[in-house]
Amino acid sequence: FAELHAAVPGLPLASSRVLPGIVLRRDFAVYCPTDGELRALLVTEPLRPTLTAPGVEFVVDSEGQYQASLRWIARRTEALMKHLQSNNVKLLLSSAKQEEVVIYYAKLYGVSVVECLSSEEMALIREITGVCPYAPFGDNMDREITETAVVTFCQPLLLASKRCAHIGFTSVCAFQPHCLILCGPVDGVNEQHAAALQEAFTMLQQLFKAVHQ
User: Fold this and answer.
1) Gene3D superfamilies annotated for this entry (predicted)?
2) pLDDT in tens, 100-142
3) Which residues contact 61 (CB under 8 A, 6 or more apart)?
4) How far apart are CA 81 and CA 89, in angstroms?
5) Which residues lie below 8 Å from residue 9, measured CB to CB, with a gap of 6+?
């Protein structure tokens, strides 16, 4: 329930509504408008490639080597974004903070990015879509990307003064996610209403479980 409702103080209760899909309480790091269905990818690590393996020290002896390393990172990141584009991936959902080089090439190749998602938000998206996070820098980065989720819409949403990401997924299970936008004059009122609704949903779950048995 915590990931499927958003409290908005400062608005009348009558402004409350139910929206299809989920509302992520994060602004887009990059937003590239697109029409129709698109593919989304979940990632749990920075997409900027590393120069060494874990536990291996990388020593730069000169400014020239340092600049060459930066160019290699940029080329590798650009190649990844081209690969995503060729697989019709237009949205990255990341639990990790992505670096500027990733944001730059995402914008260049038309890939929207939402970063710093919580583990609960990532778990909810995985439950809805049935996909696992993508690991881009394996032995074969050019392989076909199969860990993609179908997104029916992807757009910014303004809740009072807070910018959010509103995303609709094609669900692989009976669960069709909707998000409750709960408005009220102050936070305390919203918290009371949210608690009452959560208790009501819990009661309904128990009721339907008893009927099924």
Assistant:
1) GroEL, TCP-1-like chaperonin intermediate domain
2) 999 999 999 999 999 999 999 999 999 999 999 987 755 456 6
3) none
4) 9
5) 160, 183, 184, 185, 186, 187, 189, 190
Measured in whole angstroms, how far is the alpha carbon of residue 21 from the centre of its chain?
Answer: 12
Distant-in-sequence, close-in-space partners of 16: CB < 8 Å, separation ≥ 6: 180, 181, 182, 183, 184
The domain locations on the chain are 1-21+177-212, 22-173
166 and 8 Cβ atoms separated by less than 8 Å:
no
Q: Quick: pLDDT tens for 21-50.
A: 999 999 999 999 988 889 999 999 988 876
DSSP characters for 181-206?
EEEESSHHHHHHHHHHHHHHHHHHHH
At 171-195, the pLDDT tens digits run: 888 888 999 888 877 777 777 777 7
Strand order in the sheet with 112-114: 22-24, 162-169, 148-159, 38-43, 89-94, 112-114
Q: Which CATH number fits domain 22-173: 3.40.50.300, 3.50.7.10, 2.60.120.460, 3.40.50.1370?
A: 3.50.7.10
Letter for the amino acid at 186?
V
Picking from 162, 192, 154, 135, the residue whose alpha carbon sits closest to that of residue 33 is 154
Query: By three-state DSSP, how is residue 152 classified?
Result: strand
- Classify residue 145 by its DSSP letter: P
Q: In Å, what is the CA distance from 110 to each residue of 8, 28, 42, 87, 197?
A: 31, 13, 16, 12, 39
